[in-house]
Design goal:
This protein is mostly helical and 138 residues long. It has four helices and no strands.
Amino acid sequence: MPGRVKVQHKSKRIGWLRAAVLGANDGILSTASLVIGVASAHRNRGNVLIAGVAGLVAGAMSMAAGEYVSVHSQADTEKADLDLERREIESDQAGEHDELADIYVARGLEPALAKTVAEQLMAHDAVGAHARDELGIT
Ligand SMILES: [Zn+2]
């Protein structure tokens, strides 16, 4: 449609933003606690600086490793779900079709329309339709 404005929703990025905000908050608090602890034990500025830098580096590495493991475990889980779904579609096409149609009925479509939508979406991309509407994976 000419002149139509394409609106970009930003809520999909909220997971990344939340991780960054929580990570920064955690890093500031733990580094500040470390620096205060060392400063109260030693009056030496060098020791306080070294403790602060070591705390920052350790916090950043811990955050990066945690984020890496988190992202990869989610990707592994999604891949396993998709493999299972693919096998179910191969072994029981009719059952999977009914399952998808039931999902659309639960969302408010009339049974006949839900059956048609499930048929057409499964003909186009069966695994994609189940991933999106059954598993919530996009
Ligand atoms: Zn399914």
